[in-house]
Amino acid sequence: MESNSKIPYITLSFNAQGTKTFYQKLIEQNVIVIGSYDKSFHIIDETVESKQLELRKSEDDLYTATDVSASYGSYIKIDQNTPCVIQPGQFIVIGKTWIIITFVADDPIIILINEKFKVVAQYKLNQGTKYSVGRSSTADHPIVISDDITVSSVHLYVFIEKKTITITDNNSTNGSFIKFSKMKLEKGKKSILRIGLETFAVFEYVDKVPSNKLLTPFLVSAASTLSLRVRNFKVSDVDL
Prior knowledge:
Elements: E1 7-13, E2 21-26, E3 31-35, E4 41-42, E5 53-57, E6 63-67, E7 74-77, E8 84-86, E9 91-94, E10 97-104, E11 107-113, E12 119-124, E13 130-134, E14 142-144, E15 156-161, E16 164-169, E17 176-180, E18 182-184, E19 191-195, E20 199-206
Parallel strand pairs: 3-4, 13-14
Antiparallel strand pairs: 1-2, 1-20, 3-5, 5-6, 6-18, 7-17, 7-19, 8-16, 9-10, 9-17, 10-11, 11-12, 13-15, 15-16, 19-20
């Protein structure tokens, strides 16, 4: 079957592996909104906004994902074992840990933030050094995340040269995600989007619609007491 005959399809789940699926649907509209609003792709997740993510079909028959007004942000999973260049200050999520890599007075720094959105560590980095981010303290040039069991031993590599920040997911169990405002979704691969703290949307093009079109939604009891507001966070708020 030719690629242009493939069908856009979305799966919502509680994790990036899609093992806790609660909603699957064929996309028939040119514009859809994913969120907790009852006329959208309904998600019962306290950390998902009423209208969080918009998928809009363009003239080239591809869909673009746009973060509409999400306090927690929207993220896309990067390919494993493939270097990915990110912008300074762009949020990275691994497991339940947020990471910011930026520059202060031309010096690169990395900031680790826990699921309660508190800064737990920050380090000055050297350009030209490959850092290992994860739970292991014995890896080469380790940046240790000891209190997050959802992070792999060596989850992510960070390399900075000439102010270019490159991250590489080390075939981690739960994947690595980067924050985006607008992202065109490719046709030849699955796009795994993280919305809120515990909800994932897997967007893909399929040859035929799977038989299990709709499953009953579950209540996601994501920490309602958290004060995380990614959109309003500023690096200048951190005591460097």
